[in-house]
Amino acid sequence: MTVEPMRMLALADQWGRVARDLRVSLTDRCNLRCSYCMPPEGLDWLPTAQTLTDAEVKRLINIAVSLLGIEEIRFTGGEPLLRRGLLDIAAYARSLRTRSGARPELALTTNALGLDKKASALAEAGISRVNISLDTVDRELYARISGRDRLPDVFAGIDAARAAGLTPIKINAVAMRGVNDAGLPDVLRYCLQAGTQLRIIEHMPLGPRHTWRREAMMTQEDVLELLSAEFELSPLPRVDESAPASLWAVAPGRDHPAGTVGVIASVSKPFCGNCDRTRLTADGQIRTCLFAREETDLRGPMRAGASDEELARIWAGATWKKKPGHGIDDPSFVQPDRYMSEIGG
């Protein structure tokens, strides 16, 4: 049997999708306790011995880019700013070359706590843009949702990211009926005034099980109806089919400039058919879908002496078995055992 050359390997599945976007969770730890993500008392963090070392993260990133065709890398958590080796890992990833000879595009998803002190260094390390979680611009509600009174720190982080050129800055807000829905127009107004791009995300079943009910969640239609009461919205054509957000142009108004707003309708309008993502957890597990209940271990084989080629084939094999969709609307759907902070966004 002819062995396929390593240079021809790709993270392809049997449904015709190819993963070129790698999400790397650098830690499961977080300094917030957002109600839709984890219990208020927090979680039992991964023991250090189970977490990938900086060298192991670099090795797997190199395999992904050099052998498997990854072109974009997003660092996530938990909260990735808590990872001491973040800057070194980012600089290493930026030094790699994709199959086209380009540098991989690097991004970061963060809650922005401490970003004001690290934005410039992140840009120097090769991070080009950031996504920042912000579910409300009301300080009291922010403290209630996140478990911490840190909203001024988030605003400071956004300002620092803009000054450092980490743009476009995308603001992620999870829409929760009866919690922050009434204030979403205020979040959009702030984003337009600040020159950032709001992405409103349907509440997904990735946190404590009692916090999500399909019949109670705000859908894309609900969000657009809410925003349309205060803003003039016009749908924009989809340029990138693999992008998770559908976009609308926002006309300028009395108290805001023109801009865009996106809705990520992961539940009501899933985009699984165009998914180009693969995920590496902080403990070295491959997840082919955010909602997967199965994982493929890379840490064990790597620590047992597997070669780069062997690890690449394990990764490619796991991707080939990726399911066609997350199946949230299927009666047989079961929420993943891991919470969002343990998976990486």
Automatic annotation (TrEMBL):
Instruction: Identify the SMART domains for this entry.
Output: Elp3
Part of which pathway? Cofactor biosynthesis; molybdopterin biosynthesis
Q: Which GO terms describe its molecular function?
A: 4 iron, 4 sulfur cluster binding; cyclic pyranopterin monophosphate synthase activity; GTP 3',8'-cyclase activity; GTP binding; metal ion binding; S-adenosyl-L-methionine binding
Q: What does this protein do?
A: Catalyzes the cyclization of GTP to (8S)-3',8-cyclo-7,8-dihydroguanosine 5'-triphosphate.
Tell me which residues bind S-adenosyl-L-methionine: 36, 78, 133, 204
| Any Gene Ontology biological process | Mo-molybdopterin cofactor biosynthetic process
Cofactor info, note text:
Binds 2 [4Fe-4S] clusters. Binds 1 [4Fe-4S] cluster coordinated with 3 cysteines and an exchangeable S-adenosyl-L-methionine and 1 [4Fe-4S] cluster coordinated with 3 cysteines and the GTP-derived substrate.
Please name the PROSITE patterns in this protein's record.
MOAA_NIFB_PQQE, RADICAL_SAM
Which residues bind [4Fe-4S] cluster 1 per the record? 30, 34, 37
Q: What is this protein called?
A: GTP 3',8-cyclase
Pfam family of the protein (one) = Radical_SAM
Provide this UniProt record's keywords sorted from A to Z: 4Fe-4S, GTP-binding, Iron, Iron-sulfur, Lyase, Metal-binding, Molybdenum cofactor biosynthesis, Nucleotide-binding, S-adenosyl-L-methionine
Question: Cofactor(s) for this protein?
Answer: [4Fe-4S] cluster
Q: Where does GTP bind?
A: 23, 74, 109, 170, 277-279
The reaction(s) catalysed by this protein are:
GTP + AH2 + S-adenosyl-L-methionine = (8S)-3',8-cyclo-7,8-dihydroguanosine 5'-triphosphate + 5'-deoxyadenosine + L-methionine + A + H(+)
Tell me the ranges covered by the Radical SAM core domain, including all copies.
Answer: 14-236
Documented EC number(s)? 4.1.99.22
What is the enzyme's class at the highest EC level? lyase
The record's note on quaternary structure and interaction partners says: Monomer and homodimer.
**What family does this belong to?**
Belongs to the radical SAM superfamily. MoaA family.
List residues binding [4Fe-4S] cluster 2.
Answer: 272, 275, 289
